[in-house]
Amino acid sequence: MESPPFVVFIKIFAFVLLSWILIHFFAVLGIFFGVAYPLWWLFAPKQTVCFLCRAKADGEMCPLCRKTIDKNKNVSPKGLSSAIFNGILLLVFWVVSAGIVFGESKILFKLGFPPTPKTVSFNIPPKGEYRLGEIFPMAIQIVGVKTPINAVQADLSFDPKRLETVEVSTKDSFANIFVQKEVNNEIGFVRLTGGLPNPGFFSDHGVFGTIYFKGKTPGVTKVEFLLSSLVLANDGRATNVLKELAFASYLILPDKLSPEEEQRQEVILAPVVLGEQSDEMISTDSTRMIFYEKNKILGAKAGKEILAGAKFNLFRFLLNILEKIDRFVLTFWGLILNRPSM
Fold first, then answer.
1. pLDDT of residue 296
2. pLDDT tens digits, residue range 220-276?
3. Residue 178: Cβ within 10 Å count
4. Domain total of the chain
5. 48 and 189 in one domain?
6. Are residues 265 and 174 in the same domain?
7. Shortest CA distance to 241 belongs to which of 153, 155, 116?
8. Is 257 within 8 Å of 133 (Cβ atoms)?
């Protein structure tokens, strides 16, 4: 009588689970069992089992013990050489188990485990007061870098009725490759995308770019980063390590600038604009490369993981536990193999 499909599924699941447990158990202790097996046979030969004798049927020949198997009598190794071969068999199983665990850890790494911690934040001046027509800078700083980063996408929104973006500057930026600079004063949107090659940027803080705004109408206005903003780690899988989104509130006063003050502003802004133009003219053998494109470079949906990160995910929870087990096994042997001799 055939078993019901549900029972078959339970048996297969139990077999896979027990095999997985045995593989990880042997990946840690298999080498000790392999070395200790011949010693066990010396002290308790009748209580020590030959694995091939146990696996084969009655009447078959065991290649290790070189005897006909009779499970009614005993299945212990016939001699020391057979015990040694059984120990070698355990060592082979240990090597295979360790290899499976190592491969499993590589696959989990590609899937994002262990997850690179989200520690990075954008830092901008939180508030300020400016007059009508006054141009003021808003430097975008990157803070909280615990893992080297190599790509940044800063997307900001602002009220186009109260503010106007005059310039987006990459002067003094830690990044040396810029692929996108987009300004839309009709809807109130700014995007700056850039980065740097391996080994990336690794410092407590650094300026990524500076946005120059101009006050248009009096009142309180808000500038904030959008969910499409990204800070990608140089961890081999481009993990978004952006922890939180910043915002700033500015008060545009009704006082207007005098003609002399407006001229001084143009003088102050001129080196920034000219500096950007000269950067764009730098040859390709320079350390700074700028080639802006209008199409989207990094997906806007990726930023939503900032909000989704707090939600519980059973599948990711189980994979995270699996990664910790693999890391324990690999760290265990790493400490033993790298342990200095006394």
1. 44
2. 999 999 988 999 999 888 889 999 888 999 999 988 887 877 777 776 676 665 555
3. 23
4. 2
5. no
6. yes
7. 116
8. yes
